[in-house]
Amino acid sequence: MKFLAILLSSLLALVAMLPLSAQAAQRGLAWGTNDNWGPNVAKGLIKWYWHWQDGPNSRFNGILEFVPCYWGPKYNSQWAQRKNEMNANPPKALLGFNEPDISGQSNLDPQTAANLWMQEIQPWKKRGVRLGSPQIVWNQDWLASFMSACKSKGCTVGKYLAAKQNSKHAH
Fold first, then answer.
1. pTM of the predicted protein model
2. Cα–Cα distance between 22 and 94 in angstroms, integer?
3. What is the structure's pLDDT at 165?
């Protein structure tokens, strides 16, 4: 039970990296805990997972689809690894920027994020990869500003808006 509480309170509520027709039947998992627990939670409606900077979890191989994420410039070395992996085996979907609206996370202003999107994320669309928006925590104004800046640069975020919720679980 404690595992479930930890897992649920560690960023589970990501929204919609799936087409609407499949969305009702599938869910994604924000993964940032002990990899050995993976097979125990990779069941039922959970069909894909992501990590905000790390690569695929070998414990999920063949069980869940991995969706890479570009955290932001702070973790460019990890992003370079993800790009090498994606060049060898392009993903079906890709997420951009982890919590850009939070100072303790990727902390990007919308204009900088739009510039980075064009440089790092947008090129994957030409390879058939679905692009999911930055995962804001709470600042919808940030997302609106990003979408506007992004549109003016010609980037496309697609139909996949990602959101997540960080919460504390009371015992």
1. 0.77
2. 17
3. 60
